Amino acid sequence: MLDKNPKLLARLPAPLLSIGSHQLAGRGRGSNVWLSPAGCLMMSLTLRVSLTEFPASKLVFVQYLFALAVAEACRTQNILGGKEGQKVRLKWPNDLYVATGPSKMDLRKIGGVLVSTNFFAGKVDIVIGCGINILNPPPITSLVQLQPESRKTLSMERSAAAIMAKFEEMWTAFVRGGGSFAPFVDLYLQRWLHSDQLVTLTTTKPPTAVRITGITLDHGLLRTLPERAGMPRHSTGDDDYIDLQPDGNSFDLMANLIKTKA
C-alpha cells in the first residue's frame, strides 16, 4: 500500500515499522504475488533520508543490507543462535534461504526483501518490505523447523525486534558512511551462496558461462567473469567482467542460470 500512495507516504513519520499477520496480495519482484499465512513475519519499514547526505546511486545496496541484517539476526540467541542460525544464507539479489544439507537440493527459500523508493523535495522515502517464515508448519519451510525445541521461545515479536536491532546498527553506519557498502561487503559475501559459482548467462548471445566474483561497490552490480578454457580465473581489467543489475535479472539457483526477469 505505502509504495503506491506517495502522498500518504510523505505525510507519515519515519522511521515507521508496520507488521502484518496475514497477507493476501503481497508483492514480489516483477509480477510475482505472495500469499502469506499465519506463521510468516511480514514487515514494512519506512525510512527517509536527504539526498544531499545520501546519494541516490547507493539505494541499490539497501536490499543487500537488510537481507544481511536478517541473516545476522538469525544467528543471535533471540532467534536461532549460532549453530542453526548459520544455515540462513543469502541468494542474490534479495532472497533468504536455509541450507538444510550440503547439496543445493537441500536449499529452501524462507523469505525475501523488496525495496521501493519515492523521491520528493530533495528527499527519498524508502519502503523495505520483508517476509520471513518463522513459525510455519510443513510443507512450508520455516525457522522453527531448524530448531524445534525453540518453539516455546521463538516468536514473531522477538524475531522482529532482533532483526530491527541488527538493521539499526548497520543502517546507522551505512548512512554515516554516505551509503558505502564497503564495510559490509566481506560479511555479505560470507553469508551468500554464490562465491565462485559457475553459472550460465542467457542474457548474452550466445549464452555465456561465467564465474561469480562478487558485488561491485559503485553500483551494487553482480560481478561475473567469463570462463575461458585454459585461462587463469582472474581479470586483467574491468572490460573482462560482465556486471549484472539486480533489477531486470532473475537467478535460477537450481539450474545455475541467470536470465532476464519476466
TrEMBL record:
- Highest taxon listed in the record's lineage: Eukaryota
**Stored InterPro entries:** aa-tRNA-synth_II/BPL/LPL, Biotin_CoA_COase_ligase, BPL_LPL_catalytic
- Assigned keywords, A-Z: Ligase
Q: Name one GO cellular component term.
A: cytoplasm
Domain spans labelled BPL/LPL catalytic: 1-175
Q: State the Gene Ontology terms under molecular function.
A: biotin--[biotin carboxyl-carrier protein] ligase activity
One Pfam entry name: BPL_LplA_LipB
Q: Which family does it belong to?
A: Belongs to the biotin--protein ligase family.
Instruction: Give the matching NCBIfam families.
Output: birA_ligase
UniProt name for this protein? BPL/LPL catalytic domain-containing protein
Q: What is the lineage of its organism?
A: Eukaryota, Fungi, Dikarya, Basidiomycota, Agaricomycotina
